[in-house]
Amino acid sequence: MKSLFYCFLILISKPIYAQEIWSVEQANNWYQQQPWITGANFLPSTAVNQLEMWQEETFDTATINRELGYAAAIGFNTMRVYLHHLAWLEDSTGFKNRIHQYLAIAENHGIKTIFVFFDDCWKDHYTPGPQPLPIPGVHNSQWLKDPGSLIDQQPALMDTLEVYVKDIMSTFRNDNRIRIWDLYNEPGHFGHGDKSWPLLRNVVAWARSIHPSQPITIGLWNPNFTAFNEFQIANSDIITFHNYRDTASMLSAIDTLQSYNRPLICTEYMKRPNNSTFATHMPLMKAKKVGAINWGLVAGKSQTNYPQGNKGGEPVPELWYHDIFYPDGRPFNSDETTFILKMNTNH
């Protein structure tokens, strides 16, 4: 099999929303004003999923502050954070206030945020209120899709999602604490396939109608999803992608995607058993001027330090799958955190 992306990708001559998309020059001018973008996908260790992070009863500012401090201490400047429309639907004003609180905490640590709206991954059913406990030892056992198959059962939900996206983006469209808007995580995943097209097309149109000051992206993730990949590239101001494979695969992805001449950020990588590590990948991405956002900061209720696809009940793996810190701030591997800090501070 070819490496995870991209030899097959076709250069797109004309994006669907061409009049709205940043020019190559505008995108690169923006990127030149940024530091080397490095960081992690962030969920506080006390949250089992996005709802537990964002609902009022479990919005844990103390943990968020403490754990973003761990990130800042190793030089990270960006966190990728998932939202969920149900938190907004239950309490739109409170949800936006909590986003402001989160952003204030992050800013205090010198960290900017990539917010993610929709996601086709993991659990299809969700309800507001107290969230289920993690299944012991199971990777991402309670992570939620957004909106998942509910949109197939309730077509009117599309109208609600339009109001949601426009409300959030209108509120924060000029907020310089937000680095990037990531509109849809891994469209078509977990069996959704072509059912994801209507929402994907719509969220691009909704986001463009707001004219945010921040760039927009939809990350590439599956080499077999040619039509999705073409659309995502054609409608992204900056190009983002996921790659959990070895250095040869990462290099192939970077070399192909840099042919579009737009800024490039890997928004998911670092799976230690796959030889996707900080030591192997950060130098490569830094040399290529590619942003580096790994999966996972603190091992907690999401349990992404356990391997994906496991059945549960196993002891904590000797080699963590993802994540960098224990909840008390101890690193999984102190040599690793020393290396990350060195990469982030040596220019």
Key phrases:
single chain, 347 residues, TIM Barrel, alpha/beta, globular
Question: Secondary-structure map with pairings?
Answer:
Layout: H1 24-32, E1 38-41, H2 50-54, H3 61-73, E2 78-82, H4 85-90, H5 92-108, E3 112-119, H6 150-153, H7 157-172, E4 178-185, H8 197-210, E5 216-217, H9 226-234, E6 239-242, H10 247-257, E7 264-268, H11 278-287, E8 291-295, H12 334-345
Parallel strand pairs: 1-2, 1-8, 2-3, 3-4, 4-5, 6-7, 7-8
Helix pairs in contact: 3-5, 7-8, 10-11, 11-12
Protein architecture, described:
By secondary structure, the chain is of the alpha/beta class. It has a single domain (25-345), classed as Alpha-Beta Barrel (TIM Barrel). Helix content is 36%, strand content 12%. The chain has twelve helices and eight strands. The protein has helices at 24-32, 50-54, 61-73, 85-90, 92-108, 150-153, 157-172, 197-210, 226-234, 247-257, 278-287, 334-345, and strands spanning 38-41, 78-82, 112-119, 178-185, 216-217, 239-242, 264-268, 291-295. An eight-stranded parallel sheet has the order 5-4-3-2-1-8-7-6, covered by helices on one side. α11 links the parallel β7 (264-268) and β8 (291-295). α7 runs parallel beside α8 (197-210). The two termini are 36 Å apart. Keywords: Carbohydrate metabolism, Glycosidase, Hydrolase, Polysaccharide degradation, Signal, Xylan degradation. Pfam families: Glyco_hydro_2_C.
